[in-house]
Amino acid sequence: MKEEIEWRKESSEEAARELFEELFGEEEEEEEEEEEEEEEEEDGPSYEAPATEGSQKDEDLKDISYEYKKHILPTLSKYCLDCHDAETAKGDIDLESAFGRRPLVRDRSLWENVAERIRNGDMPPKDKDQPHEKERLRLRKWISNEVDLFDYSQVRAPGHVPARRLSREEYNRTISDLVGLDLRPADQFPMDFTGTSGFSNSANTLFLHTAHLDRYMSAAETVIDAAQKDKSVWNRLTDNGNVKQSLRRFVRLAFRRPPTDKEMNSYLNHYQTQKGKGKNDKEAVGTVMKVILVSPNFLLKAEELSSVDKDTKVTQYDMASRLSYFLWASAPDQDLLSLAEKDQLQNTKTIREQILRMLKDPRSESLGRIFASEWLSTDDVGPRIRKDPIDNPWCTETLMAAMREETSLFFHSLVMENEPIERLIDSNYTFLNAELAEYYRVPDIEGKHMRRVKINTRQRGGILGHASVLATTSFPHRTSPVLRGTWILTTLLGTPPPPPPPDVPEIEVGGGRRAASTLREKLEVHRDSKRCAGCHSQIDPLGFALENYSEFGRWRNGVDNRGELPNGARFRGPQGLKMALIDTRLDDLGKQLIRKMLSYALGRQLEYYDEAVVREIAQRLKGSGYPLKDMVIEIGLSYPFTIKRVPVEVSNKTKPQIR
User: Fold this and answer.
1) Helix or strand or coil: residue 381?
2) What is d(CA 436, CA 403) in angstroms, rounded to the nearest whole number?
3) Taking a C-beta distance cutoff of 8 angstroms, is the pair 64, 72 a contact?
4) Tell me: the pLDDT tens digits for 326-350?
5) What are phi and psi of 478, to 5 degrees?
6) Distance between CA atoms of 653 and 497, rounded to whole angstroms?
7) pLDDT, tens digit, 9 for 90 and up, residues 96-123
8) SS3 track for 245-258
């Protein structure tokens, strides 16, 4: 409010005009904005690559040599440890402790961040003593040798995937495939939380809580009762009355493996017990199926134990489940289980063929709807991120759903068409329905269904122009260059800036077109602070390039959308930012997507030893531009996906803890 009053004082004529428009001229403002959507401002090149003179390039490292004790230790001590020792740890960066954790790849992200800061020249801060050019090159060469050129075979390990329960989405999809009804009973379960991996299928959060137990019973009742009310569904489930055969088939699909004789005898005995109590065949079979749906063998994903602390191939049926929950977020189908039964799911050729088959199945849309939306955090748009619909009647549930769906369908299409990863950033098409098209001011789109639309302006090409992404990276009432820049560095590139010092106050106020320049000035003042300059010089330019988009992604002109990075790269607006990312950070984007997809496929947080596989896959895909379908195949064939090792400390723990 204070900024609003000051602005009106400074420009009374402009304030009067805007006040009139706010009260009486909403339609006129909409028309003005519509014209803005069609006219992208042009005032010079969108992107200027960093100058080669005076900047450090990777080629500069080729002829650099160093002696560890003579060059590296003294340089770190002189220029870095004053601020980043264990006691001070400015910006939560403790190089002294990290220095003692060998190999350095245990803190790969930290040291890569250090190398990037040294390369860009924004560390040490400008008011501190600066290392000579050769000292910077030696430090970068040392980090490169310790991290990039590290022999990862020394720490090679497939990791361990603990037993865990099905996530809510996995439960719903598994039930749908099992009985053929879209019931979504798990929507009534307690919320799943994303673990340190960032995904809801992460084993470190999928514990069994006592709150789940009653819900599992109720869900089983709901599912089987609904199936019995649908004659065609029930006839299919019960093979038209063949009890033993239908129960065996049901258990096989529910448990994702053939039942043992002991299990089958138990269920058949239970069936006979129910018959003895006077229940008819339909009621008795239904009761047994409900028991099956509350069995730990259905509710949990617990892989068969192998030799302790020894690499072994993932078993046939566990491989079927790994593939199906990676690509479909659901249980294996008959084809996968049949191949497992024939011992053919440890064959590279067969696995590749199955991945291609499964991607053609409509269920593979889970890669967009679950993986991409959780990676990019667009699943929060609508449920948690939205405008007040009373004051903003345009902010409907259906529009929020269309925003989420645009990103999900777009990512899935990139996988299906094996597009190179730069299409994620810059593309000439998107997915729209009439409501979202009207919001974007794209003409001639009718109907509620989402469809692929070729776009003539690059404003909407790629995820940086998606309303879901732009809303996720804003506050509900205004944009935030800091949030958007941090999201790009962290989510897209995997190079998160350190957290701000604890005593630094908020600096962003106001918003909208009239406050954009004020916001830039305030951030520039903020960057003058010694404690803030290093991070904000990386963050703010990325965020300001997206200022043409409002907090919910509507296009606007009249903003300052220039950005300049410490390495000298300059860009203007979304298109310039896209060009800069593709020109200078495509490898970072490629490796980050490999990391996130591998973590999602394994259902666990990646560890430092997983970086070996990430880099192997990146090396194979780099020449072709990191195509996404090839990336999915590489992950499905990768070492940690096909091999397992049970650590000694968990060899006797086969079930999640009940809390």
Assistant:
1) strand
2) 7
3) no
4) 999 999 999 999 999 999 999 999 9
5) -165, 165
6) 37
7) 888 788 888 888 888 888 887 787 777 7
8) HHHHHHHHHHHCCC
**Contact 474/466 with Cβ under 8 angstroms?**
no
Which 3 state secondary structure label does DSSP give 47?
strand
> What single string gives the DSSP state of each residue in 530-593?
HHHHHHHHHHHHHHHTTTTB-TTS-B--SS--EEE-TTS-EEEHHHHHHHHHHHHSHHHHHHHH
Residues (pLDDT < 70) of the chain are: 1-44, 51-60, 306-307, 309, 499-534, 536, 648-659
Angle 461-520-483 (CA atoms, 0-180°, nearest 5)?
55
Cβ atoms of 565 and 599 within 8 Å: the answer is no
CA neighbor of 429 nearest in space, from 399, 460, 402, 408: 460
Measured between alpha carbons, how far is 113 from 139 in angstroms, rounded to an integer?
12
What share of the chain has pLDDT > 70, as a percent? Answer: 84
8 A C-beta contact, residue 561 and residue 544? yes
pLDDT given for residue 450 in this prediction: 98
CB 159 within 8 A of CB 170: no
What are the E-state strand segments in 5-95?
47-48
CA distances for 625 relative to 339, 415, 418, 420, 618, angstroms: 33, 13, 10, 5, 10
Among the listed residues 606, 613, 608, 609, the one whose alpha carbon sits nearest the alpha carbon of residue 642: 613
What value does the mean pLDDT of the chain take?
Answer: 86
Angle at 461 between CA 455 and CA 465, to 5 degrees: 120
pLDDT at 44: 58
> What SS3 class is residue 211?
helix
Distances (CA, A) of 585 to 104, 486, 573, 589, 606: 23, 15, 17, 6, 22
**Residue 53, number of CB atoms within 10 A of its CB:** 6
Render 400-439 in DSSP notation, one character per residue.
HHHHHHHHHHHHHHHHHTT--THHHHS-SEEEE-HHHHHH
Q: Which one, of 539, 595, 375, lies nearest residue 469 by Cα?
A: 375
DSSP string covering 274-294, please? HHHTT--HHHHHHHHHHHHHT
Tokens of 369: 């709807």
Decide if 218 contacts 225 (C-beta within 8 A): no
> How far is CA 557 from each of CA 477, 511, 572, 577, rounded to the nearest angstrom?
18, 14, 13, 16
DSSP class of residue 528 equals T
C-alpha dihedral sign at 283, 288, 294, 299: negative
Measured CA to CA, the distance from residue 233 to residue 260 in angstroms comes to 26
State the DSSP H helix or E strand holding residue 264, giving kind and residue range, or none if neither.
helix 261-276
- H or E segment and range at residue 108: helix 108-120
Of 119, 112, 117, 78, residue with least CA distance to 98:
112
Kindly report each contact of residues 443-449 with a partner whose C-beta sits within 8 Å and lies 24 or more positions away, as own/partner: 448/398
pTM over 0.70: yes
If you search the block for the tokens 């064959």, which residue do you land on?
347
The neighbour count for residue 612, using CB atoms within 10 Å, is 20
- φ, ψ for residue 496, nearest 5 deg: -65, 140
Q: How far is residue 335's CA from residue 647's CA, in Å, rounded to a whole number?
A: 32
Position 423, amino acid: R
Confidence (pLDDT) at 529: 56
What is the DSSP-derived secondary structure letter of residue 622? H
End-to-end, the C-alpha distance of the chain in Å comes to 47
| Token pair listed for 320 | 């079927």
User: Which residue, chain included where needed, has tokens 């004051």?
Assistant: 391
The residue behind tokens 């667009």 is 378
Mapped onto helix, strand or coil, the DSSP state of residue 3 is: helix
The residues facing 453 across adjacent strands are 430
